[in-house]
Each structure stands twice: as C-alpha cells, then as structure tokens.
Write a structure and sequence with these properties.
Elements (H helix, E strand, L loop, with lengths): L3 E2 L6 E12 L4 E11 L4 E2 L1 E5 L2 E5 L1 E7 L2 E11 L5 E7 L2 E10 L8 E4 L10 H6 L4 H13 L4 E4 L9 H4 L1 H6 L4 H6 L4 H18 L5 H7 L2 E3 L3 H4 L8 H4 L2 H19 L19 E4 L4 E5 L14 H12 L7 E5 L11 H13 L1 H9 L9 H15 L16 H8 L7 H18 L2 E6 L5 E8 L13 E5 L10 H9 L4 E4 L2 E5 L17 E2 L3 E7 L5 E7 L9 E7 L6
Helix pairs in contact: 6-10, 12-13, 13-14, 14-17
C-alpha cells in the first residue's frame, strides 16, 4: 500500500511525460511521468488505466530543490497488436485525466519533430507578442494530434532558451564585464550558484507551463536532445580558456542538472542506469517499436573547439548502433545542427571579422564585397551585411560583434557548425559511421536537425544515384525543421545560402547536396530559391503505404493561426537485401 496524498495543498507543476523505450521481447511500452510539487512530504498518487486494468503507480523522489520535490513515476504498459489509448491521473484530482496513444506492436509510429521552441535574448517581449509567442504552431500541431494522436514527440534541441542567464543574474552579469584574465580566474561562488539554480528552475517551470506546449508535454511522450540554448548561447564553441573557467564550468554544471531533471527525468547519479551513454555526455538510443530506432547523440556536452564528441563517446555510440535489432528498417538520427547543409565561404567572413570588433562601418563595406549580387545603395548594403552577420549569431539580431564574454560572435557561430574547419573531419567520421550502419544492418538512415531557424532538406547519396534513392542504400536525407518559436533569418541570408549550395563530395563513393523542396511559398507565390524557406515550422513523420516515411514540414502562413502549409519529403524503405 502506497501512502499517497488524498489532497495536495502545495503547487503542482506538470505532468511531463517522457518516452523511455520499449522492451521488444516482453512487448512492454515504457515511459515516465514527472511532476514538481511544493510544500508537501506526501507522495501524490498516480493512477494508470489501460484495457481492463486500473492501478496505482508508485513514485520515487528524483531530486529536491528548496521546498520543491521532483517525483518520478515509471509507467509500463503491455503493447497490443492494435493501437490503444491509455489514461493516467492523480488521485487528488480525478477530474483531470490525460490520454496517451500507444501504437500497435507492428505499427510504424506517428511522430513529430521540432526545434528552437522559444526566443533568443534579442527578441523582446513586444516582438514575441506580435508572433503570439510559441502558440500558433503548437496549436497547429495539437490540431493534428486531436485527429490522429501522435505516439512520440522528438525535440531536436533548444526546447528552451536560457540565454538570459547572463542578463538576469546580477553576479553573473557583473562577471561578463570582467577582464579576460579575471574571467578565467574568478571562482564559482555560492551566491552565483544560487542565482543560477533559481534562474534555471524558474525558467523551466514557466516555459514548460506554456499554454498548448504543456498539453503536448502531458499527452505526447517526448524524446529530447539538447543544443546550446538549453545551456546558453554558443556553449561549447568558446575558446578553451573561457570554456574551462570556473564560472563557465559552474554555470554549465547547474544547466545540466536541470536539463537532466526536466528533459531526461534523471540525474547524474542515475543517468547510466537510465540508459545514457558517453564518456561525459548523455547520448542514447530508443526503439519506436520493432521497426524504427531513434539515435540521439549528445553533440553539446563534450563540445569544444577540438571535438563534438570524444572518441570514447563515439565508440559507445558505435556499440549501441551495433545492437540495433534486425527487425529495424528505419533509423532516425537526431543531430541538433544540420549535417547536410549549405556552406558559407567562412574564410572570407573570418578575414574581416577582426575589423568588425573595432570598426563596424568598415565591416559593413568588407562583408558587402562577399555578396555575389552587391548593392550600390550604401544603406541596402549595410542592411544586407548586418543580416548576414545576424545569421552567424545564435542570439539573433545584430547588437555588435563582441558577445557577452568578449569573444567575436562570428568565430563563435562559425565554429558551431559541422562544416567548420575544426569539426569537418569529425563530420565525415559521423556520416561514414552511419554508412557503416546502413551496410551492416540494411536500414534506411534519415537525419533530423534544427538550430538554423529555417527549413529545408539536404541529402547524401551514392555517386551516380542522385535520382534513384529507392535503389541507393547510401541515400540519406537530412530534414531541417526550425524554428517552432524563434524568428527566421532575413531573406539575404537565405539567398546567400542558396548561392553557396552546390554538390559537394563527402568521400570517394558519396556526394551531398540540397534538395529542391519549396517551389511555392505559403501564399502560393513561385519561389526562385527552393532549398530553404525562412518561416517558422515544425515537422511530423508518418508511415506511408510503401514501407517508407513521409517527413511533412508544416510551414506557418501569414495568418499564423491558419493550418500550416505542408511540404512533404518521402524517404524510401531500405533497399531489399
């Protein structure tokens, strides 16, 4: 008998429903529900109903913070041959129940993917209000969920934006004004830790309580990975002396504590028990039934200017991939930053970045020379130059080219991309690792990514097989869907990316390119640039009648509350062995 509270006096936040995986041998679906509750020592009783069974599920305390307690409840439900709907609720409030849809055992799941579910620090509250925050596309998503419920949601990073840490915490804000030497040597103080803990905890409770998003968190089991904004803007791409400074490390430790709690329902102490792998990161693999695997490499925890993942973490990931069961046909790899994506002429941008730090007007003129079309109008040239600079910045609109930490933001954002010189070899290793998986397991690999605040499709393919993906095992699409909330980059950025889009060689048997996807805009106007579309968007992933997957990018219209325009990319099944 569980001693459960019949009434709850304190505030209760949640529930947050996380997908934990499936035991294929026992045919058991596993998820966890987490709540945060204030001012009570008794466990809120959780009840679970499926089929003819109704039972109380025991919970355990995952963590405590001040007067708040994190309770986790592990749900296990037998998977039927056909789709089923289960319910859960809390004993103290039986009027409120949440429905969750579980796919039939052999079914291919209906999934959603999204990223950048918030706003960077430069997008002020007034601008956010004009966009109705993150609400329009969540309403669009939940409209489909009400019609044919999704079985899982995949967040590709930046589920939450933590950039204001360095603005709203007074001691941390003061630290950003220190000299470089002082920044590197200043200790992580208890008062700083308290500020950071309060900031991360409060921000999670507020954001995860957002209208519509909170309903999705309670009814569509989630799989989340992290990107920089889940920690703070650009984390992992700063110089080592700053990255390893006591204050940076202390703040990051706090950020990961709350990331693990809210987004992974775990702690550092129990992460390995919960199936997370990596030398010091939190990569993982989850099965969506017997035919689909989701691979989630943690590309942020171990990131530096020398690596994205450590060699030990890559090896752990390789071993997990080797254990994918033979029933799997589709592998969806969640890579926060796009892997197949247009490349900018970084060396040209970097050659003028030092000018930007000291002379902004001269920077405008230098960058304008890079544009292939150019402008005689000084104001227009400055506008375009500024827009391109914005693209490199994770925080959005141009506010100078020296960030909070005294580093050139051009360098920061260029170093964050897979095609940065410091990461390009590791990128090749990553793709070839996935190609090994294709050859050894006869699966079709697809990549989903976010981060860049626009949508598009890139692909890798075998040389000579550009137009025959069905018969090419090396065809690997990279679906880019971003952002659910944040503002898109200006048109000049999209035009520059299109200008630099061309066929690239990955290795002696593989080429890569962008795929023409957007022939018309959401208003039915013909588009000249068909690779990328700079509008807010989300994606769902549905099975088709041919054993493949349809990745449908839902793009926001001018009327934000109207049903979004859909652009579909069909990924074929694996090539028959």
């Amino acid at each position: 008998e569980i001693d459960c509270a019949e009434e709850i006096d304190g505030d209760l936040y949640g529930p947050y429903l996380k997908y934990q995986g499936m035991d294929l041998n026992k045919r058991v679906w596993k998820s966890s529900v987490m709540i945060v509750i204030k001012n009570t020592n008794k466990q809120p009783g959780l009840c679970l109903s499926y089929g003819d069974t109704t039972k109380r599920v025991p919970g355990f305390i995952l963590e405590s913070f001040k007067e708040y307690t994190f309770w986790r409840y592990d749900l296990k439900v037998p998977v039927l041959d056909e789709e089923q709907t289960i319910q859960y609720w809390f004993q103290h409030d039986q009027e409120k129940k949440w429905d969750v849809c579980i796919a039939g055992f052999e079914d291919t799941w209906r999934s959603i993917f999204y990223s950048c579910n918030g706003f960077s620090s430069d997008v002020d509250e007034e601008r956010q209000k004009t966009l109705d925050g993150i609400q329009p596309l969540w309403e669009d998503c939940m409209r489909y969920h009400r019609q044919a419920p999704y079985h899982v949601q995949i967040g590709g990073g930046d589920q939450i934006y933590m950039d204001l840490l360095w603005h709203e915490c007074p001691l941390l804000k003061d630290w950003t004004d220190f000299t470089q030497e002082a920044k590197e040597n200043n200790p992580w103080e208890d008062a700083m830790k308290e500020e950071a803990e309060n900031y991360y905890f409060d921000t999670y409770l507020k954001h995860f309580g957002s209208e519509r998003f909170r309903d999705a968190l309670a009814t569509i089991p989630f799989i989340f990975i992290l990107d920089d904004h889940d920690i703070w803007d650009g984390y992992g791409s700063y110089p080592e002396s700053l990255q390893m400074s006591p204050v940076f490390q202390g703040a990051a430790h706090t950020a990961f504590t709350y990331y693990l709690l809210f987004q992974q329902h775990t702690t550092r102490r129990r992460a390995r028990k919960d199936g997370y792998i990596g030398e010091s990161g939190y990569s993982f693999l989850r099965l969506l039934g017997p035919t689909t695997a989701v691979v989630c490499p943690d590309t942020r925890s171990e990131r530096s200017l020398k690596q994205v993942l450590s060699q030990a973490s890559w090896q752990d990931l390789r071993e997990d991939l080797n254990h994918i069961p033979p029933s799997v046909k589709h592998v969806i790899v969640v890579a926060a930053i796009p892997v197949a994506y247009p490349r900018l002429e970084a060396q040209d941008m970097l050659s003028v970045s030092h000018i930007a730090v000291t002379n902004t007007l001269e920077f405008f003129d230098e960058v304008a020379k890079i544009f292939p079309w150019g402008h005689d109008d000084d104001d227009k040239r400055k506008e375009d130059s500024c827009a391109l600079s914005d693209f490199f910045r994770k925080t959005g609109a141009y506010k100078g080219l020296v960030n909070n930490f005294g580093e050139s933001e051009l360098m920061d954002d260029l170093n964050d991309h897979w095609t940065a010189e410091v990461h390009v070899d590791e990128r090749k290793f990553f793709v070839e690792l996935l190609q090994e998986l294709v050859k050894s397991k006869n699966v079709r690999v697809s990549i989903v990514s976010g981060d860049v605040h626009c949508c598009g499709v890139g692909k890798f393919y075998g040389k000579g097989a550009e137009d025959s993906p069905e018969s090419d095992p090396l065809t690997m699409y990279n679906i880019v869907s971003s952002a659910m909330g944040n503002i898109p980059p200006p048109g000049v950025v999209i035009k520059t990316l299109h200008f630099n889009s061309k066929v690239e060689e990955l290795n002696e048997e593989t080429d890569e390119k962008m795929v023409e996807t957007f022939y018309k805009d959401v208003n039915d106007e013909e588009l000249d640039d068909k690779y990328l579309l700079n509008r807010r968007n989300w994606c769902d992933i549905l099975p088709n009648a041919y054993g493949g997957l349809d990745f449908r990018i839902h793009v926001e219209k001018e009327d934000m509350w109207a049903p979004a325009e859909i652009y579909t990319t069909t990924v074929p099944p694996p090539v028959a062995a």
